[in-house]
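Reopening this one. Same input as before:
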Amino acid sequence: MIFVGDDWAEDHHDVFVCDADGVRLAKRRLPEGVVGVAAFHELVAGFVDEPVEVVVGIETDRGLWIQSLIDAGYSVFAINPLAASRYRARHVLSGAKSDAADAKMLADLVRTDRHNHRQVAGDSGAVEGVKILARTHQSLIWDRSRFVARLRSALLEYFPAALSTFSELGDRDALAVLAKAPTPAEAKALPLGKIRSALRAGGRQRNIDVRARQIAEGLRVDGLDAPPAVVAAFASTTQSMVAVVGSLNAQIAGLEKELADHFGQHPAADIYRSLPGIGVVLGARVLGEFGDDADRYEDAKSRKNYAATSPVTRASGRSHVVVARFVKNKRLADAVHQWAFCALTTSVGARAYYDLRVGLGDSHHKALRALSNRLVGILHGCLRTHTIYDENTAWAHRPENQLDPQFRSAA
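Same output, byte for byte:
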């Protein structure tokens, strides 16, 4: 076997090749793209006969280059950059760093310690598409939240009546009216008919008259006035942010339809949708982050560890502490946490388990984390056996047997 360290950059790859004893066989800088991949294949072909004899270490798990290496049949290990940094510090005390040295370090790492790292999963193209859409959808929602927060901050400076009138600034009603009247004076002078027209244009179809009167009353409340120049400046920024939030709303809605289509076509979609608390969006996020490689998780514990729902034990001498996992896939952890919260109203068993944990003194978030750990285990069993979720089977145990002792001391 040969071991290849690949230190990647945007336009090139530094490659180091060694044998099982760590003896250097070759090192080279290869360009990105088809030419570079062809050169990589040619380089390793000079030392082995079969692709399975090639082990590659690289600090990323996605991209066209990675996919081409996996398709070629090489064993590819994606090394977390933090782990790579710690490994480098074991061998280079001076703190020196270079691309060529990092390539050698990665080759040595997969040569000696690859059993401690995760091989890049062989997920299907279908689940990769779901993951891309789910991540983009979530990122746009985060972007919208940031712009709404900026809009709220601006209105607080010069137009507090708008904050009192609209509880949700990202809502279609608020955006439609603020686009028409971004200043207090314009809002007070806005006729009831124009408010109705703005609401219709924004997409409201019911209770238009009632809502229009509520908005008119809220915007016509007297308040403190900012200087005209300040009001004019804030009005311009408000209109800009309203336009951005409105555009993000449209893009999020469009992506959600695409996400639903891709998720619905995946073979495991029915299993995910059968679990309590999971809808299309959450199901797609969880599926995309977990992947669909059947050999990626050895058991339910491995899946729970990756989801960061299981606690971590820190024991040294007389000290023994059990804490929550902080190093994690944040997108997956966020989705699983929301999943557990939604399951409280859709599953009698999930609610009983949560109430039991709270009754034993757990905080809300600690109880949710314990519940999400249980749900991830149930999901793993459903996927392994290719069966739809069944409430009685999942929660048939006695309540006291549902408690995992490791959680009793978890933070």
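So the earlier flakiness isn't reproducible anymore. For the record, Strands lie at 2-8, 12-18, 24-31, 54-58, 75-78, 312-316, 319-323.
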